[in-house]
Structures are given as structure tokens and as C-alpha cells.
């Protein structure tokens, strides 16, 4: 269509902070995410500190990783934390029933995870076992992590080499308890959650931020029941939402790299469904929690494709293209837009699993297109959201259409304004006029762009990077307005002053 593209940034109307935790991550004991991805062990030839590979830590630090959710996922509700402490040689093994039926040797446990978070400079988000564990077990894990008193749990922690409590804040009360976490009804889960919550205690100054298991996608009834029966604000301070983008369906999801325009279009329109999901779930939350005490935590999201040919189907290893980068940008824009309520989000699953930031092969490492979106969007961490009015042309495919333009505007503490803008159309450049309402003059300081010749371009081992951050300057400023030209299938960041 020939409609005008216009973005009005209301620079004087910002009052919500975009929590940096929206840019969070999730890593499960699944395939080669933990083992091989982060953890190689101290005796490995791959450069590591305390068993954790240096290249991956350095890359994630540079990208900006505010938090890390662990140990699952479905794995969390069959994980028994006491199996993962003490001398590594003496830790019992278990079968990872959800992910390939492999033997888990528990060499990566609580202390190793806390060390990983420490190296990353990331806030830990721990998911407790409500599905197959006990109240006592969860209660003792919190005591082990957070108590500074003299007690059997703190003695145990000290005997394993850690004197001081860690002070873990974010705590999931189970994962997907409507499915792999116990197949519970919302009424049953609400009661169980209240019971577990009662025995996950606060120690010292630390205040636990308990996250109840929230709905699967559009299960509005689950949200309604939890908000009505779950004692919001007291038994839980956050509630999760899981929604994955799947081009086709669960039995045939589609290839990560080999897709046509119809599949690209389906992916983008299904990912935009996040807008409706957030709006409707937040409406329910607003009715029960008008004071906005409970945060919405989108603690699993991203593209789920078929695994790469020849890889273990239980390991969920997929490549990552410019299409994945576009999906990341659109979702992050939506979380920002609803940042009054969305206080955390965690893309699945950081390294070697699903929509990863990093892929590893032996001692080699690749940064994916999605990695570069997170790096670009670092400018929005803890910045003030500036509301925008957007007029966008549509991107049409066959007889369906979606908006071509997605955006976020924010103002950081040093007064700089950052605009991220995406053009979802893979065939056509767009010209956009932006007005910074409330300002008289703006200066264009710098720009960055993520794009490629093909929408299925990806970064591969042993090859030059195809998708990365490049500098961008196709911008004309006059007064408080600017005209920007976005190539087809591109994501741009503009820094203004
Ligand atoms: O991220 C993969 C899986 O997806 C998680 O273990 C589970 O919570 C979800 O179904």
C-alpha cells in the first residue's frame, strides 16, 4: 500500500520504566544448552573459568544479559536440587525424561549455576519443583540459598564451600503446571501454589519475588482463576505467560532456514498475536489487581522450528536467521509497549536450544542474528518508555496483511532518545517520518542496522558473519522531525539527542 508511515514520539509523556529484565534469558538442562553450551568442566581444553566457557560468558556480557532463568522448563518439575550439590563424583544421576531420555549426571547444580550468574553479571531466576517435588524440598532450597542463620541447610551450604547466602530473589513456583509440570487444573494449581508459596520464606533483607505459573498462550480462564483464587500480591508477585511462535503447527513446525514467503508471513503474523495475548491477559490482571502489584513475566517465548536435520529431536537445536531477528524485535517492542505490567521476559533458550543467542560446536562459537537484536536493544534497558502513535503501511501477502512497521522509543537517564524501528516487509523499503513531539530540535548521534540480502541469511561455523550490527545513517533531520529510510526486512536503532 502507499499509506504514509509516520511515528509520533511523545517525548513529554513518558512515565513507565522499561525493565531491563524484559531482556532476560532462559536456560534449561536440555540438549547442549547447559552441557557444552556453558559448562565444559574445569579439565576441558576449551578456555574456561571454574568449568564455564569464557567465550560464551564474554559474548553474553557484551550483549547485556540481565537475568537467567534455570533449571527449566519441564526439567524443573522433575529436578531434585539436592542431587546437584556436594562432590561432583558422588552426585547421583537421573534420566532427563523430557529431553531425549539422556542421563543427567548433575555435574551442573546450584553452586555452578550461581557461579555462572556471577560471571555473567546476571540476576538468577530459579524455578522450583512443584510438580514432582515436595514442599519441604522447595522450602529447603530457598533456605540453602538465602539463609544467613545457623541451620542444617546453611551448614550444608558451608560444607560445600559457600559461607554467605546468595540472596536469590526471583522464584518460579513450578513451570507449566497445566502441562508437563503436573497436568493440573487452575483451581488445583492455585491451591498448591499458595501452599508452596507459604513455605518459601524471606531471609534477612532479601524479599522473595514469587512467580506463579501462568497461562499457556490464550488460556484466559487460567489467568482468571489464578488472579481470583491465587491470593495475588501476597502468595505471588509475578505470574508467567508462555507463548512460542510456530510457523505451521506442533507436528510440523517448519525449517529454521529453508522457508518461503508464505512461511515468513505466517511466522510474523503469529508472533504479532503476542499483542492480543498481552492486552487480554493484562485486562484480566487489571480487574483483580488494579494497583498493578503483580508483574506479568513472559518467561518463555520465541520461535520454535523443526530441529536441524540429523540432530537429536529431543535436543531442540535450530539455526537462527534474519527472520528470527525480526521476531525478536517485534516481541521486544510489544513487551516494551506493555511495560506497565510486563516486568520480565525470557527468550528460550540462550545457547544451542530453540531461538538461541549463541550456537557452539566444540570450541567454536557463533553469534546469531537474534543475539544482535538483544545487543542493539540494550539502549532500552531501564529507560523511560516514550509512548508512540504509529501510522504504518501494511505488508500484504496473498489476501492477508500485517503492519509493516514496529517500533519502540525510550529516553535514558542521560537524556538520550533511542528509537528502534523494524520494517517487516521482506520485499520493499519503507520511508518513515518521525516527529519528536515536545522537543524543538533534535540531533542524530548515531545509527545501527541489522539486515541481509536474504531473509533466511544466518551465521554459520567457519564462515564470515552474514547478519550483524552495522552502522546506519540514512536519516535526514529537520527541527524536531526526521525522515528515515529502512531497507526491506531490517531493524534500525537511532540515537538522538
Ligand atoms: O523451552 C522448551 C520447553 O517449552 C520448556 O521446557 C517448557 O516449559 C515449554 O513447554
UniProtKB/TrEMBL annotation:
Protein's GO biological process: L-arabinose metabolic process; polysaccharide catabolic process
InterPro entries attached to this UniProt entry: Alpha-L-AF_C, ASD1_cat, GH, Glyco_hydro_b
Pfam families the record matches: Alpha-L-AF_C, ASD1_dom
Enzyme type, top EC level: hydrolase
Protein's UniProt keywords contain Nucleotide-binding: no
Any one GO molecular-function label of the UniProt entry: alpha-L-arabinofuranosidase activity
Record key words, sorted: Carbohydrate metabolism, Glycosidase, Hydrolase
EC nos: 3.2.1.55
Assembly and oligomerization: Homohexamer; trimer of dimers.
Family, per entry: Belongs to the glycosyl hydrolase 51 family.
Family annotation (PANTHER family): ALPHA-L-ARABINOFURANOSIDASE C-RELATED (PTHR43576), INTRACELLULAR EXO-ALPHA-L-ARABINOFURANOSIDASE 2 (PTHR43576:SF2)
Name of the protein in its database record: non-reducing end alpha-L-arabinofuranosidase
Amino acid at each position: 500500500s502507499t499509506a504514509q508511515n509516520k511515528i509520533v514520539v511523545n517525548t513529554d509523556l513518558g512515565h513507565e520504566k522499561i525493565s531491563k529484565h524484559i531482556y532476560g534469558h532462559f536456560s534449561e538442562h536440555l540438549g547442549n544448552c547447559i552441557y557444552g553450551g556453558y559448562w565444559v568442566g574445569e579439565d576441558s581444553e576449551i578456555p574456561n573459568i571454574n568449568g564455564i566457557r569464557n567465550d560464551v560468558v564474554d559474548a553474553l556480557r557484551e550483549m547485556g544479559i540481565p537475568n537467567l532463568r534455570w533449571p527449566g522448563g519441564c526439567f524443573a518439575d522433575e529436578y531434585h536440587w539436592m542431587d546437584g550439590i556436594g562432590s561432583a563424583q558422588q552426585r547421583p544421576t537421573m534420566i532427563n525424561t523430557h529431553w531425549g531420555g539422556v542421563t543427567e549426571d548433575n555435574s551442573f547444580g546450584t553452586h555452578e549455576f550461581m557461579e555462572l550468574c556471577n560471571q555473567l553479571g546476571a540476576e538468577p531466576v530459579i524455578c522450583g519443583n512443584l510438580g514432582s517435588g515436595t514442599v519441604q524440598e522447595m522450602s529447603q532450597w530457598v533456605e540453602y540459598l538465602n539463609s544467613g542463620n545457623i541451620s542444617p541447610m546453611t551448614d550444608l551450604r558451608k560444607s560445600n564451600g559457600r559461607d554467605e547466602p546468595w540472596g536469590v530473589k526471583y522464584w518460579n513456583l513450578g513451570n507449566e503446571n497445566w502441562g508437563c509440570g503436573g497436568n493440573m487444573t487452575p483451581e488445583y494449581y492455585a491451591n498448591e501454589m499458595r501452599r508452596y508459596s507459604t513455605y518459601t520464606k524471606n531471609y534477612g533483607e532479601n524479599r522473595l519475588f514469587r512467580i506463579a505459573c501462568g497461562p499457556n498462550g490464550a488460556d484466559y480462564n487460567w489467568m482468571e482463576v489464578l488472579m481470583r483464587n491465587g491470593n495475588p500480591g501476597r502468595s505471588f508477585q509475578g505470574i508467567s505467560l508462555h507463548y512460542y511462535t510456530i510457523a505451521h503447527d506442533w507436528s510440523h513446525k517448519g525449517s529454521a532456514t529453508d522457508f518461503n514467503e508464505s512461511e515468513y508471513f505466517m511466522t510474523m503474523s503469529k508472533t504479532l498475536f503476542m499483542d492480543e495475548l498481552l492486552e487480554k491477559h493484562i485486562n484480566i490482571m487489571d480487574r483483580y489487581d488494579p494497583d498493578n502489584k503483580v508483574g506479568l513475566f513472559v518467561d518463555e517465548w520465541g520461535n520454535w522450528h523443526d530441529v536441524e536435520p540429523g540432530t537429536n529431536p529431543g535436543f531442540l537445536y535450530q539455526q537462527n536467521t534474519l527472520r528470527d531477528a525480526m521476531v525478536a524485535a517485534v516481541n521486544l517492542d510489544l513487551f516494551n509497549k506493555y511495560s506497565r505490567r510486563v516486568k520480565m521476559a525470557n527468550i528460550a533458550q540462550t545457547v544451542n536450544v530453540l531461538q538461541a543467542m549463541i550456537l557452539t560446536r566444540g570450541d567454536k562459537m557463533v553469534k546469531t542474528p537474534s543475539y544482535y537484536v538483544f545487543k542493539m536493544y540494550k539502549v532500552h534497558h531501564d529507560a523511560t518508555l516514550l509512548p508512540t502513535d504509529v501510522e504504518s503501511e501494511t505488508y500484504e501477502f496473498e489476501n492477508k496483511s500485517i503492519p509493516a512497521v514496529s517500533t519502540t522509543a525510550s529516553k535514558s537517564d542521560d537524556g538520550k532518545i533511542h528509537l528502534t524501528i523494524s520494517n517487516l516487509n521482506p520485499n520493499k523499503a519503507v520511508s518513515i517520518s518521525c516527529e519528536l513531539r515536545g522537543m524543538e530540535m533534535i540531533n542524530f548521534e548515531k545509527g545501527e542496522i541489522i539486515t541481509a540480502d536474504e531473509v533466511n541469511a544466518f551465521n554459520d561455523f567457519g564462515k564470515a558473519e552474514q547478519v550483524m550490527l552495522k552502522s546506519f545513517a540514512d536519516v535526514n533531520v529537520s527541527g524536531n522531525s526526521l525522515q528515515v529510510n529502512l531497507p526491506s526486512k531490517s531493524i534500525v536503532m537511532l540515537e538522538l539527542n
